[in-house]
Write a structure and sequence with these properties.
The complex is a heterodimer of chains A (about 425) and B (about 325). In chain A, about 40% of the residues lie in helices and about 0% in strands. Chain A has helices at about 5-25, 35-45, 65-75, 85-90, 135-145, 150-160, 165-175, 195-200, 205-225, 235-245, 255-265, 305-310, 330-335, 370-375, 395-405, and strands spanning about 285, 345. In chain A, helix 2 (about 35-45) runs antiparallel to helix 10 (about 235-245), helix 3 (about 65-75) crosses helix 9 (about 205-225) and helix 11 (about 255-265) crosses helix 15. Chain B has 2 domains: about 20-165, Immunoglobulin-like, CATH 2.60.40.2550; about 225-325, Immunoglobulin-like (Sandwich). Chain B is built from 7 helices and 18 strands. In chain B, the strands form 3 sheets. In chain B, strands 1, 2, 3, 4, 5, 6, 7, 8, 9 and 10 form a 10-stranded mixed sheet that branches.
């Protein structure tokens, strides 16, 4: 009988102790160890090194080329219906993405439109890495039947026939090849690369094909010169890390308690930095994470097919159209192939991730919360092998992780515009 | 009389036109919890998904409802990656149900009208997948044929399955009998007792903490190797996500440089079950036991092991370089 009040008091005291412990844990969130601060710094934009040169593109860092490339990037006449430019899918205001599961241009793109921000640092382009430079990537949508659906002869002719473009081109790359002769350089009515195009192309001489390819690759190199300037801008997370490094007490207030807990999970228990590491929050590598196939489609082969394509692509780093006489192509030369790449796709940057939904290579997952649930479960992959392991995070932890991911946003259209 | 002779002619012409199907006893079986399709002796991991209704759940043969279904064959036998494979699903018109075999399929007069899905032969280098949206539930038969490109021999697997599978037939009884037999075996053989005592000692050891303290630290030293390998990185300290070169220095235990060695390098993260993201190679012997190793790149922080195999005329030595990034 007398034991009951005692028990009650005991329970109350226990609850208070636990509560106090939680409170003090909250207060200590900002206590990072030196080692943790080093990890945080490695993820901060302040650690982003100078952009490495791209010797395969002689005009990569050339200002007039960037100016020319910027015009081309926004030029809808480079598409078969004069209505689709690079910027149709890579919209500056949407962090150079489009907010759709897949790009919508002439048709529907094969995969989700990735952001261009910071891709100049990546050795591989596309979800499956089927191109190895920004300039060779820029050429593909121009001829993709679902994207701009044009072809290289038509595009080179358009540049040649527009006095202002012609002037910009020739100032950078010298005289355009004379391709007026419709016998030697056929006009393809259907435009996009298909059967008719292939037949016409193979009827041309090797020399003429090379002349067109050279001019076409130059157009890609100008677009790449512009794309190289598209860099991430400072996020709340970066400011927080800068404050921590300077021992600025105001820094602690830049992130909420939940966001700081989320950050702890991000660099710890949630294993995110295994792939989302470095200041761009990507390792630029290919991983199978067991994402479900898209409705009505087969599971995506991913990198296993992409690596075969980049090796045989005539515009790759080792190809005829590279500007590097020494063909320094370590990434291509030492590239890994093999069955572990089945179903693997490129790790996307997490910068601005809050604003680049939907997610995954086919835009299969609509929200960040669902993406985190997927990684928490890490189900077996439909094809190949899921490299991720189940995380066993609680609902609260998942919400904290999501809160942290929302601190990674910067300004949308942060690039150096050369146009007035 | 006339009818019979026409049929005879059809069968005869078919048997001439169609390549001979050899070893037609392939099918889908479960082996060690893995669903395996045997296309004759060629084996592949077989699984079916209904991603729209059951997400990542795998099925071996029978499918719960009529829905979009993705059939996956992951080759366990490499030669399947070079063979044209075709895939057909028919309604079960054989009347043989679960016991339908290739012989029964060959007897079907009009295979096309029974066919609900057909994918013509294609070579898939990585993994073979097909997708079919079943309109109706019912009994079906899958037929997979792979053609050996040189000999033109055709290998086939036939697997009857049900869509809208709800019943379990005699399976529960069979499983129960297996469990009883296994338990009986464990009890009689004394294995269970041994297992129990082992568990108990392990638990006790863990509880008193000695287990953890006494466990040997897993360091990797190439003590038995006759060679020593060290590395340096001319481009500065190691960092992730940047391709770079190493200089490997190989010397004997006496400190003499090892020259003219054939060196190959692999590596990976043992805790994460994956290798290096690149395929590095020794590209140049620099003299004095130094070798240039190009194409090194790490894409994650953590514990890596670089496995260096050095082949000299005295034999082959494997040395593991542990790295904490």
């Amino acid at each position: 009988m007398s034991i009951r009040p005692l028990l009650f008091v005991g329970i109350v005291v226990a609850v208070m102790v636990v509560f106090a412990a939680c409170q003090s844990r909250d207060a200590k969130t900002a206590d990072w160890t030196e080692q943790e601060i080093a990890v945080l710094r490695s993820l901060s934009l302040d650690s982003l090194q100078a952009l490495p040169p791209d010797p395969s593109n002689a005009v990569a860092d050339d200002v007039p080329a960037r100016r020319f490339g910027e015009r081309l990037f926004f030029e809808p006449r480079l598409s078969v219906n004069n209505g689709i430019s690079c910027a149709t899918c890579h919209q500056p205001i949407r962090y150079f993405s489009d907010g759709l599961p897949r790009g919508q241009a002439i048709g529907t793109s094969e995969r989700n439109t990735p952001s261009i921000i910071g891709t100049a640092y990546s050795p591989w382009m596309y979800w499956d890495g089927r191109r190895d430079s920004q300039w060779s990537q820029a050429l593909s949508p121009l001829e993709d039947p679902n994207e701009q659906a044009s072809n290289r002869i038509r595009i080179v002719r358009q540049i040649a026939n527009d006095p202002s473009y012609r002037e910009q081109y020739e100032a950078l790359f010298g005289t355009l090849p004379a391709i007026d002769d419709r016998e030697r350089f056929p006009d393809i009515a259907g435009a996009a690369v298909g059967e008719e195009w292939r037949a016409a192309w193979s009827s041309m001489t090797e020399e003429d094909r090379r002349a067109v390819n050279r001019a076409f690759s130059n157009i890609g190199k100008a677009i790449a010169a512009f794309e190289r300037s598209i860099m991430p801008s400072v996020s709340r997370f970066d400011k927080y890390v800068a404050g921590l490094s300077d021992n600025d007490p105001a820094a602690a207030t830049l992130l909420t308690t939940d966001e700081i807990f989320g950050l702890r999970l991000f660099i710890g228990k949630a294993n995110c930095t295994q792939c989302h590491n470095g200041p761009l929050l990507t390792n630029h590598e290919f991983h199978n994470t067991g994402v479900l196939s898209s409705p009505g489609e087969l599971p995506d082969i991913g990198r296993a097919a992409g690596v075969r394509e980049v090796i045989k692509n005539p515009f790759n780093c080792g190809g005829h159209y590279s500007d590097d006489p020494e063909r320094r192509c370590s990434e291509l030369e030492f590239v890994r192939t093999g069955p572990e790449l089945i179903g693997a796709v490129r790790t996307p940057s997490l910068r601005n991730v809050e604003f680049t939904a939907p997610y995954m290579h086919k835009g299969q997952i609509a929200t960040l919360a669902e993406v985190l649930l997927h990684y928490n479960e890490a189900p077996d992959s439909m094809i190949g092998h899921n490299e991720a392991k189940p995380l066993d995070l609680s609902g609260r932890e998942l919400r904290q992780l999501e809160a942290f991911l929302r601190t990674l946003g910067g300004q949308a259209d942060s690039y150096q515009s050369e146009s007035m | 009389m006339k009818w019979t002779s026409i049929r005879f002619l059809v069968v005869l012409s078919l048997s001439v036109l169609l390549p001979q199907v050899v070893a037609a006893h392939g099918g889908v079986v479960e082996e060690d919890d893995l669903c395996v399709i045997k296309v004759s002796y060629l084996r592949a991991h077989f699984k079916v998904y209904q991603p729209r209704v059951s997400g990542h759940e795998q099925f071996c043969e029978d499918l719960p409802i009529a829905s979009e279904s993705v059939f996956v064959m992951e080759y366990l036998h490499d030669s399947l990656a070079t063979m044209p494979i075709d895939f057909r699903i028919i309604r079960d018109v054989t009347g043989k149900g679960r016991f339908a075999r290739m012989e029964d399929i060959e007897k079907i007069d009009d295979l096309d009208s029974a066919t609900v899905f057909y994918q013509a032969a294609t070579i898939e280098q990585d993994v073979f997948t097909v997708i079919h949206d079943f309109a109706d539930e019912g009994d079906f038969i899958g037929i997979v044929s792979a053609t050996q490109p040189d000999t033109k021999k055709v290998y086939a697997a036939v697997f009857p399955f049900e869509v809208g599978f709800t019943g379990f037939g005699y399976w529960p009884l069979f499983v129960a009998a297996l469990i009883v037999l296994q338990l009986q075996y464990l009890l009689m053989s004394g294995r269970f007792k041994r297992w129990f005592s082992r568990q108990r000692s392990a638990v006790l050891a863990a509880l008193c903490g000695c287990f953890v303290l006494l466990a040997p630290v897993d360091t990797i030293v190439a003590e038995e190797a006759e060679l020593r390998v060290t590395y340096s990185t001319p481009s500065g300290p190691l960092e992730i996500n940047r391709i770079h070169s190493w200089v490997l220095h190989v010397e004997s235990n006496e400190g003499l440089p090892v020259e003219n060695a054939q060196i190959s390098v692999e590596g990976g993260m043992p805790e994460h079950d994956h290798g290096l993201p690149t395929r590095p190679r020794v590209t140049e012997e620099l003299g004095g036991g130094d070798y240039r190793l190009e194409g090194m790149r790490f894409h994650m922080r953590g514990y890596w092991e670089i496995v260096v195999t050095v082949v000299t005329d005295r034999g082959s030595t494997v040395i593991i370089i542990p790295l904490q990034l």
